[in-house]
Amino acid sequence: MDELAIEVHDLRCAYGDHVAVDRVDLTVARGELVALLGTNGAGKTTMLETIEGHRRPDAGNVRVLGLDPVRDRLKMLPRVGIMLQESGFSGELTTWETADLWRALRSRGGDPDAVLERLQLAHRRDVQVKQLSGGERRRLDLALAILGEPEVLFLDEPTTGLDPQSRRRTWEVVGALVAAGTAVLLTTHYLEEAEELADRIAILDGGRIAARGTMAELVAGMAATISFLHPSGAPSLPPLAGSVATRHGDEIVVTTPELQRDLRTLLAWADTHDLRLQRLRARDGSLDDVFDAVAVAEPVAA
């Protein structure tokens, strides 16, 4: 069995003179979740639609489970699950009727009752789709996408509109699918979602992958930060490895490659002078920092 469920090589997609995806390579293995991030207009949706087989690439090759997603679409579809940003299902059908109809259309089997239970929708099985809340409809979208346990799952902004509890439950369901061997390609605007779920992350910028790697690889080059309110009447700060800036008048921000050392120095300084560092925060580099760096720098790869 081929371990690579999704293979994208030298993909190019254009709308007239506008190049939306520019010579992109990407792979997703079985049992792996890859998060595709980027600002609006970065090319995420075009790339996802092309991999799903909704449009032909202008150049390059795409394979899903070894199949061409356009030419071999009828062979591919029963083996994949797709969760779009908007489903467009009939509002007149009940939740259960929608799941049962989807099961029949997809020819993949699956138990509508079990999948509704899994997404905490069993108590809404006899409610018309049009009467569901926005979050419930989003959970129904995911339920239909995973019905029959697909080998590959495409998730386009899966937790938009969900409350924190439902978002966490969605993460648990997706994580269990990955652990069972499903390959997942996820797009999301929630960076914490990518941090929580992704084995690897790719950040698109201007149609190209500007950064990619595991979380550890991506944040390895990002500086840590320490921030606090400058105590009134305090003496000058001690020598630090990082750079010091002031924002909003009295907030000190230290950007440092030596988080532990500089934090220890600052705490000793505060203790020596009997100072209280209000709103003290210290954190390592984050995916937010990587995302911001991509927006202002030339493309880099981890």
From TrEMBL:
Single Gene Ontology BP annotation: response to antibiotic
Tell me the CDD domains matching this sequence.
ABC_DR_subfamily_A
Q: What is this protein called?
A: ABC transporter related protein
What terms describe the molecular function in GO for this protein? Answer: ATP binding; ATP hydrolysis activity
User: ABC transporter domain: from which residue to which, for each copy?
Assistant: 6-231
Keyword set, alphabetical order: Antibiotic resistance, ATP-binding, Nucleotide-binding, Transport
Q: Which Pfam families match?
A: ABC_tran
State the InterPro entries in the record.
Answer: AAA+_ATPase, ABC_transporter-like_ATP-bd, ABC_transporter-like_CS, ABC_transporter_ATP-binding, P-loop_NTPase
PANTHER family recorded:
ABC TRANSPORTER ATP-BINDING PROTEIN (PTHR42711)
Where located? Cell membrane
Q: How does it sit in the membrane?
A: Peripheral membrane protein
The answer to whether UniProt assigns keyword ATP-binding to this entry is yes
Q: Which domain of life is it from?
A: Bacteria
Q: Which GO terms describe its cellular component?
A: plasma membrane
